[in-house]
Amino acid sequence: MSPTSTANSKPTTLTSQSTSDSNVTTSISTVRPTGPPSNGTTEPLPVPTQSPPIVCPAMPCPLESVCLNGTCQCLSGSFLLQGRCRQGQVFAGLLHITSLTFNNEMRNRSSQIFQNTAANITATLRDALKNQHGYIRSDVIQLVPGSVQATVNNLFEDSNVSQEAINTAITDAIVDATKDCGDCLLANATFRSMYRYFSLPGQAK
Length: 205
Description:
- This protein is an alpha+beta fold.
- The chain is about 20% helix and about 35% strand.
- A hairpin with a 2-residue loop joins strand 6 (about 80) and strand 7.
- Residues about 1-40, about 40-55 and about 195-205 have low confidence and may be disordered.
């Protein structure tokens, strides 16, 4: 009797790649499958896991964008999507959140507390703006103390939406949160719009 093949019994190998600079390290690890399982079914390839993306200036910004507060910001009238600046409408604002206490780590966009706080803010703004025509998403650009003040960009496809309509939708969400849920993120918060214009070096405004 011939020896039994052991081609599919090799141990799983782990491959990894990493990039680093003085401030941020990003690692991607992928498990290499050793072959189909013994029952004959095919397992799906594992999805690579990736740590939070590197922010500028560790990585260069795409064309027609500038590095501002540690993140790439496209010029006025466009927003960043899948690594490119796309035409659209960007309505910037300052959201003052009194239900949160500022932590110095919130200044670092790569920190876990910044990412968690930003995720909560963007989800809350999405609920407030989801019925506005052309709404895409909201991005948190910066967090500063007092209690927590978030600079946000509300991104829209080209549409007839106005800054007034956006202000009203967010203000209504604040009123509802204050009335119905005293410990909600937007309870007793305030929001004001901000003029947004970024230009490339040497480009006239």
